[in-house]
Amino acid sequence: MRCCTRKYFLFTGAILLMLFLMSQTAASQSLPGTTGYFNIPSAEIYADRSFFAGANLLNKEYKKWGNPDYHAMGFFVTTTFIPFVELSVRYSRMIDLPEELYNSTVGDRMASIRVRPLKEGRYHPAVVVGLQNFFTTLQSGDASHFNSTYIVLTKNFHLNTFIDRVGVTAGYGSDLFTAADYQFIGLFYGINFSPKNMEFLELMMEYDADKWNAGARITILKHVVILAGLEGLDAFSGGISYKLTLP
Q1: pTM for this prediction
Q2: What is the pLDDT of residue 233?
Q3: Fewest CB within 10 angstroms: 34, 36, 37, 162, which?
């Protein structure tokens, strides 16, 4: 089963290497693949025609979907095809499964849409309404995982101190659609900041309606982003993503 895991990493690495040859700037992708902090979504949506591709580790300690004995990898593509709408598709697959379980295990496909009715201004926050994995082929909802319907607000502040920028996000999620399991149900919030003259580094602390998380995001060569942190402050998760602008 190690060979199957190796194939996932080689496939992801090949995609990222190809995208690496196209010079663009990086942006902030969260564990679900949508724009956000470490795990929670934010109300930030990037410029029209932005396109993200990446992969994140989903730690088994806090993964509600699938076999609780194994980690999973989530491979995602996210795009902003008009300035105020973000679409994302993620395919999650458990890794390091024994041979007898691997062939019978089906991955999870998650679609998300985020709409920003209000852009951030000087005196007011941005507002985004998000639907995460709202579509399922089963009326019972058994095939819908990581489900959430939420509203989130984000405001950034630029400081003339040892901290260059501070971002504050707060949102509320609801179980509006029937699903097997959910994310971000109830109040979630977080803060992130970048030290002065270190725009390539973001540090984050958040509460995702279930647990506290801490993370960091490092931008390499302006377009490759490495995300790493601790879910529940004790279980490592993270990944890598890349942004380009479509023609």
Answers
A1: 0.83
A2: 97
A3: 162
